[in-house]
Amino acid sequence: MADNNNLIVYCEFDEGNIADVSLELLTKGRQLATQLGVRLEALVVGDKLAGIESQIFPYGVDVVYKIEDARLYPYTSLPHASALINLFKEIKPQICLMGATCIGRDLGPRVSSCLHSGLTADCTSLEIGDHTDPKTKIDYKNLLYQIRPAFGGNIVATIVNPECRPQMATVREGVMKKEVFDPAYKGEVVNLDAKKYIPESDYVVTIIDRHIAKSKINIKNAPIIVAGGYGVGSKENFDLLYQLADVLGAEVGASRAAVDAGFTEHERQIGQTGVTVHPKLYIACGISGQIQHIAGMQDSAIIISINNDPDAPINAIADYVITGNLEEVIPALIKYYKKNSK
Question: What is the mean pLDDT of each run of 10 residues along the chain (342 residues)?
């Protein structure tokens, strides 16, 4: 199959703004599109989209497709899926990226199964590379390497899609960096007729009222995080982390094992199946350092590991390692910090 000339990002739109995860994917999409020598395109489906391109163009976007109808906002599955499926049949994108959000997780599989294109969920990295099929010996150039942990995180798998298009991947918020390409960048706006892409029968579901509970926990943007793993040992010991976080002005995070053990709530989970964070200081307490957890915090500026196992895998990426029992080390840190912060 001939490669097509565009890489498209589905941009989530809510309350007048493009979602951060979509802007992160546009940043990555610009790098990949430049590497491939193709156009970077964006698609926004919703209502009241006037001027929305001003949020998108600075990320180096060449074309913004807009499909507007009052019934397309808030998001519902069928009309949005039809919009992508029918547009993609027409423009035949080489690559499609979307956020691994509740919307992306609903939309991506619908689109990929209808177009028979395959999809890799929760990628932690995206690259361009070549592939030789070991059976047919056919060489494929410039494929999208869709990279994610697999088999419980024991390996990092690189998944390729040699034949089918578009090559589709979803990425969690915070995994890619968001960077403006050029504030003055101007592309083309293409307004598409919703009726042409979405059958009336798709509007069978109407959203009468919508309530979104805002999370009270904000670890994504916290400059300091004190995180605990299964090695913390108990819910009572986890209280020590809250005490340390309190004196440091930090947020408390956790590994999946700590959440599964009931030490703290799921909203605090960091890693491949939780939140990706980039704090200035990350204090890892009793965390062994499985690959899924490291994927969510490896970009922290300074990492301190407190662990009674000197060979814990996380120590390999830590800037400072304190070997000892949490019950002794953390109270000592609290006492020292209080004494020196007066």
Answer: 73 91 95 94 94 93 94 92 94 94 93 92 90 89 88 79 92 88 93 92 85 76 93 90 92 93 91 88 93 88 93 92 92 87 64
Dihedral in degrees, nearest 10, Cα atoms 86, 87, 92, 93: -130
Distance CA 162, CA 138 (A): 10
Question: Angle at Cα 276 formed by Cα 155 and Cα 122, nearest 5°?
Answer: 50
Reduced to 3 states, what is the DSSP secondary structure of residue 325?
coil
- Which stretches within 169-233 are classed as H helix? 194-197
Closest CA to 94 of 10, 1, 25, 158: 1
Q: Quick one: which H or E segment has residue 9? A: strand 6-11
Secondary structure of residue 66 in the 3-state scheme:
strand
The CA distance from 341 to 321, in Å, is 22
**Reduced to 3 states, what is the DSSP secondary structure of residue 188?**
strand
In whole angstroms, what is the distance from residue 145 CA to residue 129 CA?
6
Phi, psi of 213 (to 5 degrees): -80, 120
User: How many angstroms separate the CA atoms of 149 and 294, rounded?
Assistant: 11
Residue type, position 328, single letter:
E
String of DSSP letters for 86-140: HHHHHH--SEEEEE-SHHHHHHHHHHHHHHT--EEEEESEEEEEEEE-TTT--EE
In this structure, the number of other CB atoms found within 10 A of the CB of residue 2 comes to: 7
